[in-house]
Description:
Elements: H1 2-38, H2 42-46, H3 51-56, H4 60-76, E1 80-86, E2 93-95, E3 98-111, E4 114-126, E5 134-137, H5 143-149, E6 166-169
Antiparallel strand pairs: 1-3, 2-3, 3-4, 4-5, 4-6
Amino acid sequence: MKTCLFILMISICAAGSFAQNQNSIIKTQAVNMAHALIKKDFPAFLKYMHPNIIEMAGGNERLLQRMDTVNTMASQFGASIKKIVIGNPGNLINYKNQLQVTLPQSSELTSGFGSFSLETTLIAISSDGGKNWQFIDTSIYNLKEVKKAMPDLSPELKIPPPATPKLIPMQQ
């Protein structure tokens, strides 16, 4: 009886340690992705996007062209990403040989009109046991389209509806 209880306690501790370690890996990789976007290192940013979403957007080259075009237009209007803050991952789900989780993301964009604050949700997916994570920003891609491109998304993922961006007018 004592042996069973001891094994159970070790199993619980190991599972908790795995989840904590995964949360750290997920958050680190999400922050790296955000830094790549802020630095406009689009090839590095794409390494963190899920391949199904890249394919849905027309492939690497087309997506890189689109990102460059959007960046050029944004620069012409004085718009830029001021900061991105990654929140803590939710509950880790093991579904169809993938680890999946959501995590909140807060972004602040600046423009000639003022700043915009956005609260969004990222979906993080790992197909290699949690070593590498790929992300889907649910504010950029329509959730119905994402679910169509990603048939292996767990129905247990809690994805809140997109929040309305908040405008912070420029002070004069």
